[in-house]
Each structure stands twice: as structure tokens, then as C-alpha cells.
């Protein structure tokens, strides 16, 4: 027999040769020093590769293996994404923020110009003016390239939110939503979250000015305290009514997430800070100011956060959203995935 | 069904999770996908459930990866300013770093080599791997040999590069 090739040696070592083939290899290797040496080399290689693969074995999630019956057929069965539902909510808000940052309505850009206004609705809660069906409006990717150059921490008056939504006839709003529909994901897709669960805020479109700003996502920053935390820590807790009074309306919150604290800064440009804690390691802060207030305070609040190692900046309408916590890269990726 | 799916579930679930994990890199997600694959098997009652499960799981993972690709693009767009490079790993992150090195090495393999390696590692036989990938059975040993060698080489190259970079 001629020398044994590499593939055969691996098949031999893997126990995947037939009895006859294996015997042939054994016989040859027994009498051929070169092949014997190669066999040892290949064995070492296999062991080395196996050890490497062992290092990327899945960690124990602690979740029991469900009974097969429990996995039984369910039409439209959804993958369990629930722990990330809050992330989806925020991600959607991020996506909406893109629209709000986009250029104002321009003729000839049907979707791009029509969408920003209805898109503002999911982040608007109170008062629920001009109810708009935006259930399908989750794909924000179209607006992204246009908005790209505008991503900075500076408030801009060039915002679609400037358009007074109240001035838009309901029919046109509905039309805009319809036009947006073709780019929306199919209903029932397991990775999509219902936009109905989207963050609620003051009616963006109804404000005299929308300073579209940034959501600050600070993943993996365990133990890393953002400066804005320190600033906000000094603010007194206020009753919910006081917060509403300061803002001249309801404050932003995210449906389904418990409100941890409501705080407010003092002064004529008072800011309200609502802290949500979706889980023990994650904090979401929603900073909000009365419509028409000077956004300078909020911008200054944002500035120190630039020093954090990883940062995604976004404001949604006039709402500043910060997420801090041990959001790992996977979760973050998924979070952003939901924005599409 | 030639074989009891419940028995296959017990014997193959962990292997399927292991297989999926190296594709989605999220243990819980891998479990979710494995369970989804079994849920589909309950409905479809495939003739060769094990082979079927791995094919379905591979497809689901591929869809997952496509989504991940889209979201990475999105992530880039959302990054408002150049993020500093990843912080230097401290000791607590050493294990994670190590895993990252292996993962990067694995991702340097060609898709076919990687698939064959992951299937073998998940306990599939050469016959199974051949029918899963469409490769000739006689090519599996050669493919595995190449995949293993490249994995080790890529890992070692990655480690060296890192030592140099750190000085």
C-alpha cells in the first residue's frame, strides 16, 4: 500500500473507516515510520483542534431542557425573545429617532418625507392626538443614509418633528402609514416586536421645536459611572404630578417597564429624569424638558458621556434616552436588529 | 417515524445546541433555535430526524447571521463618533478574550470547512456530514483535516498578533 493520505489518517483516527480500510491503514502505519510519525502528528492536531472547540462550547444557561411536548406545534410559534422585549422597545425608539433627525419634508421623496411625521406617533403618548396606525412602521433603514451626516450631539432645528402634526389631515397621515407599509417586516416574524409596545413620550409633533438628540447606549460598562449619573443623582425625587407639571404634560415612559424613580432638576429649564430598570443590571434614563425649553442643559449633560468607551448617541424627539448597564454585545446587536 | 423523536430529542438536543452556539454565539439563542428545530420536527415528522434537524438548525442559524449582519450595519450607522478600540481586557475578561480568539479563528475557515468541523464536533458521522453538506463521503476526512489545521493555525496566528500588538 502506498502512503496513507491525510484525509484517510483523519478518518482512521476518527473511527470512520470501515473495518477493512482501518486494518489496511493499521498494517501500513505499522511498517512505515514516515506514516507512523504523521499519524502521531495528525492525532496531536485533532486533539489540539478539539481543545480549541471546547473553549467555545456554550455555557450553561441554567435553563432546563423543556419537555418535547412543551415544544409541540403551535402555529405562529414565536421564539422566546421576551427578555429583550424592552430592548426592542428602545431600539424602535432609536429607529424613530433617525426619522426625526432626517431632513424635513422634501418634494419627490414620498416615503422619506411622509414617514417622519407618523413615525413620531409611537414615541408620543399624551395627549394621544391624531391616532395613527404605525404598527408596520419598524423599518427605519431607509432614512439612515440621509441622516448619517447629521449624527452629532448638537441639537438641530432641522428636524422633521418641527412639522406640526396637528396640521396634517388624518387621511394623509394614514396614507403615509400605508406608503410605509411595504418596507415593514411581515407580521408574525418571530424577531419583530410589536410597535404597540413602543416608548411613550410627549407628542413630538405637537411641540414647537423638536431637538432631535441622542440615545446613549453604553454597553458592557459594568461599574463605569457616566458623569450624567452623578449630575442626576443630585436631583430630588419628585411626585409624578410635579413632574407632569414641570413638563406641562405626561412624561415619557416605556410601557411594560417599571418606573424606578422620577427626579427633576431645579430652575426654569428644569429637566425631568425618569429611571427605568428593566433588570437588575440595566438602567434606562429618560431625560425630558418642557417643550420649547433651552436644550443646552441636556446637551451639556450629554457631553461627559463622550468619554465612555462605547457609545451610541441618540435623542428621540426632545427625549434623551440613556441606557447603561451590562448589555452585552449580543444583546446590543439584537437590540439594534429590532430597529430594522 | 423510524426513530422515536423523544429519544432523539434527549440524545441530540445538547449536540444541536453546541452546533448552533458556534454559529450564533449566544447560548440562550442557540437553545431557542434548537428547541424551535425540534418543534418543527414534531410537525414535519422527517424520515431522518437527526439529519433533518441539523439542516433546519443550520438554516435557522444562517438566517440569524444575516440578521446579525444587517444589525451590524445599523450599529455602525448609529455610532455617532468613532468608538475607541475595545478596552484592554482585564483578568476577569481573560476567558472571554480566549473564547474570542478561538471564535475569530473559527470564523476564518471557509464556510464549508467550518460546517464540516462543527458537524463532526456535534457528534455527526462522516456519512451524516456527507449527506448534510453534499460532499462525497471520501472527502470528509480531507476536509476535516484541513479545517482542523486551519483552525489551529488561525488561532496561533491570532494569538501571536495579539502578543505583538500588546508589546
Distance between the termini of chain A: 60 Å
**Rg value of chain B:** 18 Å
Order of helices and strands of chain A: HHHHHHHHEHHEEEHEEH
Strand content of chain A: 5-15%
Major protein interface: A-B, 60 and 64 residues
Q: Label the structural class of chain B.
A: mainly alpha
Please give the oligomerization state of what you see: heterodimer
**Portion in strands of chain B:** under 5%
Q: Share of helix among residues of chain B?
A: over 70%
> Any low-confidence stretches of chain B, pLDDT <50, length ≥5?
79-89
Distance between the termini of chain B: 59 Å
Mean pLDDT of chain A: 58
Overall shape of chain B: it is: globular
Shape field of chain A: rod-shaped
Biggest sheet statistics of chain B: none
Largest beta-sheet characterization of chain A: 6 strands, mixed
Task: Tell me the number of strands of chain B.
Answer: 0
pLDDT < 50 stretches of chain A: 74-85, 95-227, 302-314, 335-340
The total strand number of chain A stands at 6
Number of helices of chain A: 12
Task: Report on the architecture of this protein.
The complex is a heterodimer of chains A (340) and B (167). Chain A has 12 helices and 6 strands. Chain A is of the alpha+beta class and 340 residues long. In chain A, β2 and β3 (271-279) form a beta hairpin. Chain A has helices at residues 6-13, 19-31, 33-55, 85-101, 110-114, 116-119, 144-147, 170-180, 227-233, 240-247, 296-302, 329-337; strands spanning 215-218, 259-264, 271-279, 282-289, 315-316, 319-325. Chain B is mainly alpha-helical and 167 residues long. Helices cover 78% and strands 0% of the residues of chain B. Chain B is globular. The chains are: A alpha+beta (340), B mainly alpha (167). At the A-B interface, α1, α3 and α12 of A face α1, α2, α3, α4 and α5 of B.
Amino acid at each position: 500500500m502506498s502512503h496513507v493520505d491525510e484525509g484517510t489518517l483523519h478518518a482512521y483516527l476518527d473511527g470512520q473507516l470501515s473495518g477493512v480500510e482501518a486494518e489496511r491503514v493499521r498494517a501500513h502505519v505499522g511498517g512505515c515510520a514516515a506514516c507512523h510519525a504523521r499519524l502521531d502528528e495528525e492525532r496531536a492536531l485533532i486533539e489540539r483542534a478539539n481543545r480549541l472547540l471546547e473553549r467555545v462550547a456554550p455555557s450553561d444557561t441554567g435553563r432546563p431542557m423543556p419537555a418535547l411536548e412543551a415544544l409541540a406545534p403551535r402555529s405562529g410559534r414565536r421564539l422566546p425573545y421576551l427578555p429583550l422585549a424592552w430592548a426592542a422597545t428602545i431600539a424602535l425608539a432609536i429607529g424613530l429617532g433617525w426619522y426625526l433627525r432626517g431632513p424635513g419634508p422634501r418634494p419627490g421623496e414620498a416615503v422619506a418625507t411622509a414617514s417622519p411625521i407618523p413615525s413620531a406617533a409611537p414615541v408620543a403618548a399624551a395627549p394621544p392626538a391624531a391616532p395613527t396606525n404605525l404598527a408596520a412602521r419598524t423599518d427605519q433603514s431607509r432614512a439612515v443614509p440621509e441622516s448619517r451626516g447629521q449624527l452629532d450631539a448638537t441639537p438641530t432645528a432641522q428636524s422633521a418633528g418641527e412639522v406640526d402634526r396637528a396640521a396634517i389631515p388624518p387621511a394623509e397621515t394614514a396614507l403615509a402609514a400605508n406608503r410605509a407599509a411595504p418596507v415593514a417586516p411581515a407580521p408574525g416574524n418571530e424577531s419583530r416586536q410589536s410597535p404597540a409596545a413602543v416608548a411613550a413620550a410627549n407628542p413630538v409633533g405637537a411641540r414647537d421645536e423638536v431637538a432631535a438628540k441622542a440615545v446613549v447606549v453604553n454597553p458592557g460598562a459594568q461599574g463605569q459611572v457616566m458623569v450624567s449619573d452623578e449630575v442626576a443623582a443630585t436631583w430630588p425625587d419628585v411626585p409624578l404630578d410635579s413632574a407632569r407639571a414641570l413638563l406641562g404634560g405626561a412624561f415619557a415612559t416605556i410601557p411594560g417597564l417599571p418606573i424606578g424613580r422620577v427626579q427633576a432638576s431645579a430652575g426654569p429649564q428644569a429637566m425631568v429624569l425618569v429611571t427605568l430598570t428593566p433588570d437588575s443590571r440595566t438602567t434606562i434614563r429618560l431625560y425630558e424638558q418642557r417643550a420649547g425649553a433651552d436644550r443646552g442643559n441636556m446637551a451639556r449633560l450629554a457631553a461627559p458621556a463622550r468619554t465612555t468607551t462605547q457609545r451610541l448617541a441618540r435623542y428621540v424627539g426632545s427625549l434623551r434616552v440613556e441606557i447603561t448597564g451590562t448589555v452585552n454585545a449580543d444583546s446590543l446587536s439584537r437590540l439594534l436588529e429590532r430597529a430594522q | 417515524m423510524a426513530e422515536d423523536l423523544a429519544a432523539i430529542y434527549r440524545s441530540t438536543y445538547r449536540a444541536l445546541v453546541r452546533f448552533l452556539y458556534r454559529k450564533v454565539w449566544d447560548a440562550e439563542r442557540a437553545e431557542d433555535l434548537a428547541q424551535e428545530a425540534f418543534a418543527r420536527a414534531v410537525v414535519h415528522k422527517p424520515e431522518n430526524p437527526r439529519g433533518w434537524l441539523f439542516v433546519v438548525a443550520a438554516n435557522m442559524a444562517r438566517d440569524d447571521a444575516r440578521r446579525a449582519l444587517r444589525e451590524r450595519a445599523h450599529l455602525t450607522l448609529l455610532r455617532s463618533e468613532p468608538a475607541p478600540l475595545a478596552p484592554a481586557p482585564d483578568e476577569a475578561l481573560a476567558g472571554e478574550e480566549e473564547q474570542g480568539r478561538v471564535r475569530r479563528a473559527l470564523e476564518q475557515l471557509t464556510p464549508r470547512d467550518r460546517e464540516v468541523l462543527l458537524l463532526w464536533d456535534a457528534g455527526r458521522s462522516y456519512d451524516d456530514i456527507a449527506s448534510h453538506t453534499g460532499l462525497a463521503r471520501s472527502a470528509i476526512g480531507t476536509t476535516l483535516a484541513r479545517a482542523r489545521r486551519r483552525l489551529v493555525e488561525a488561532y496561533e496566528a491570532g494569538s501571536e498578533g495579539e502578543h505583538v500588538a500588546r508589546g
